[in-house]
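To fix ideas, we reproduce below one chain and its tokenised fold.
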Amino acid sequence: MMRVFSSRLQWDSQPNTLSILLAEKRRSGAVILDLTESNPTRAGFNYPGEELLAALADSRGLLYNPDPHGLLAAREAVVEYYAQRGVDVPASRILLTASTSEAYSYLFKLLANPGDEILVPRPSYPLFDYLAAMESVCVRQYPLDYDGVWHIDFDALASAITPRTRAIVVVNPNNPTGSYLKRAEWERLQTFGLPILSDEVFSDFAFAPDSARVATLTGASDDALTFSMSGLSKIAGLPQMKLGWIVAGGPDHAAALAGLEWIADTFLSVATPVQWALPRILAASGAVQEQIRRRTRGNLLHVVENAAGSACRCLHVEGGWYAILQVPRIRSEEEWAISLLADSDVLVQPGYFYDFEEEALLVLSLLTPPAIFAEGLRRILDTAGRPS
């Protein structure tokens, strides 16, 4: 039979055992304590609804006058966002996208031919394989090591570079380890002579200050071509608004932006109303960010305090929305996740979803409402204290 669809779509679409069990539980009416919630709009935060809706009602959104870089007023709002963080970014270096995922798509198109390679961290968010496959690009992983803190394994990174390597991705802070790029690491990354794609969507959500940290690569170097990415999904807790951006810097950034302009002009995907609304959305984002910070810090403290002295331990995390709980290696991560859902009605993600190599790790969302989080954690710790 003649093949109909592209090989880009050759992915296993069958639900895994955990998903099947979850669907069965919900059909039976079980009350699930969901410790995986990553959508802030479903996590019980108070949004400035009237202000956000008023921002979207701007009559200028009725006029279509596209700019492949994004409307200047919107890019100037991004300039102000960085200025409030002490970083000087000219609007001419900013290109708007519909999301960080689209930003990756544009950058893969810009930097790589089919069959070329992009280096991505492991562990990390399990989307890179899909994004790369859509561009006919190959992913090669470099490991993050943990010895009480997370850091890049530079020997392994160097070994992963081939003549077809076109860029190195850093997620800063990493999702889900919550580890920021350190200044010493940034200095070493520049020595490889490759473009650096820096995913900074969680950058605003640090748990404590650290002078050794590089919060953003925006304007960080004249020695390496850099692309810093962020957007409303995390900054404002508004993934449905579909607006992100790329900030280009370093040598050849002008040529890179010219190429990105061609790509963006082909799609023109960012909606006009959200661009006009961006200054007001960013101005209103502080209140939501503070709610998220309070909750994530509170839930993280709860994990650290309650895991201490138990059969589990919470791995060190510097920022972001997740905690990594190491549970006894009496069973696999998948068996832990299935057992917790089957017997305790607690939903967690096993570490292998994020390509953790070490057993047995569970990923917990710190966005979870505190009462649900506390009860879910209690059940996990109780189960870990009763090994079978």
